[in-house]
Design a protein that fits this description.
Blueprint lengths: L12 H16 L9 H8 L3 H13 L3 E4 L3 E4 L4 E5 L15 E8 L3 H7 L7 E10 L2 E11 L14 H12 L6 E10 L2 H7 L6 E11 L2 E11 L3 E5 L5 E5 L1 H5 L1
Helix pairs in contact: 1-3, 2-3
Length: about 250
């Protein structure tokens, strides 16, 4: 099989513009600053607006820019790191957990979640909604699915909905002896509800971290956490939890 001479492949115009724009972001703009409109930028760099949009989309994907409703295109803050470890095992909501509870409902999950939990397709489960913030911005949203069999005493608690109900679900879940957990990470696209919570447009790239918690030799809970791909990076360690921390290299630059 022959080899490809990469030196002879012309660099796409939008990619060259992306490099020029990236340098301009470092030297001329500060975090949170709004960029000029597309017409002015296209005129400044002598390119078509279609080429400019490709370059801006690439920089947004890389986390250098953010497009915010009603604001425009701004320079993104430093990325944050998502450290995923598996040596230690803790239930969601344990001491030191940075997630914020928002609500809990009792409803039928998706077919994929029902299959993972090994519940009936029409069997409702407790769904706890949580979110994470850093630097005052939303970076992640989570749906924690808990079968009724994992929290059998919950029915006696008078908290029909809201954060109080969510706390009750986690409190009852903690009564189980956690035997282990596993996590998987994949790139996805933000659904409408996730996009709204994360202040992104539907279809924006996200990182989906799915975690199964085991007790009594079965899946006792399933977490589906959606992270903003434009502001998060994955790091792998032995912390045993999902943590968010600032990227010192990006901050220093």
């Amino acid at each position: 099989m022959g080899t490809t001479q990469l030196e002879s492949v012309a660099e796409p115009k939008y990619w060259h513009l992306r490099t020029v724009l990236s340098e301009a972001l470092d030297s001329e703009f500060s975090v949170g600053e709004i960029l000029p409109n597309e017409r002015d930028l296209a005129a400044r760099f002598g390119v078509a607006r279609a080429t400019l949009r490709q370059a801006l989309e690439q920089l947004e994907l890389e986390g250098r820019l953010q497009r915010r409703r009603g604001v425009g295109t701004t320079v993104a803050p430093p990325r944050v790191g998502v450290a995923v470890g598996t040596e230690q095992h803790i239930w969601p909501g344990a001491s030191g957990d940075a997630w914020q509870l928002s609500d809990s409902t009792f409803e039928v999950p998706s077919a994929a979640v029902a299959a993972a939990l090994e519940t009936g397709q029409d069997e409702p489960v407790h769904i706890v909604r949580r979110s994470r913030m850093t630097h005052g911005q939303p970076v992640a949203a989570e749906l924690l699915h808990v079968p009724a069999s994992s929290v059998p005493d919950l029915s006696a608690i008078d908290a029909p909905s809201g954060a109080a109900r969510a706390r009750a679900v986690l409190r009852e879940l903690h009564r189980l002896d956690l035997e282990g957990q596993d996590s998987a990470v994949e790139l996805g696209s933000a659904r409408a509800d996730d996009a709204k919570q994360l202040d992104r447009l539907p279809g924006a790239p996200v990182l989906v971290v799915t975690t199964r918690y085991f007790a009594r030799s079965r899946t006792a809970a399933l977490s589906v956490a959606t992270y903003r791909a434009d502001t998060c990076r994955l790091t792998f360690g032995d912390s045993g939890a999902v943590e968010i921390h600032e990227d010192p290299e990006r901050r220093a630059s």
